[in-house]
UniProtKB/TrEMBL annotation:
SUPFAM superfamilies: RING/U-box. One of its GO terms (molecular function) is zinc ion binding. This is RING-type domain-containing protein. InterPro entries: E3_ubiq-ligase_TRIM/RNF, Znf-RING_euk, Znf_RING, Znf_RING/FYVE/PHD, Znf_RING_CS. It comes from Anabas testudineus. Residues 21-61 form the RING-type domain. Keywords: Metal-binding, Zinc, Zinc-finger.
Amino acid sequence: CLTSTENLSGPQPREYNQFLCSICLDVFTDPVSIPCGHNFCKTCITEYWNINVQCQCPVCKRLYNMRPELQINTFISEMAAQFRQSAQQKTSSSSSEQQDVKPEVHQMIQKRRLKIEEIKASVQLSNKDADREIAEGVQVFTALKESVERGFLFTVLTESCLLRR
């Protein structure tokens, strides 16, 4: 059972979007059309209306005083079934291609994992260097502060001695 167009290989043509429910983003299951013309899975729109206080279209926000009666749109249902069947055929035919690619993909994943580990090690080293630099900066700042305080104290004492004379 195809649950999403993500299962198809390659980019998806725009036409495929017409077979997707805008609530669940999957191929329609029991598609219904509401009065504004938008289509949804029957279960999706029913649950949406059960959750929300106002009965409105989730796409265009058109309000309905009464909940519209939902009838399965057989045309869209048949089209969605054909789409599902076509998508499954494409998926099964591309599965053999995917098996050939798997070792290459696995190797690429391993290389990326190694690169991630290298980056993590580099970040740890950078953090240690940064911590060391911060500690050295604090020591320099503390020594400078103490020097300024001694200078200030010396100035105060010198002035005090000069005033006593």
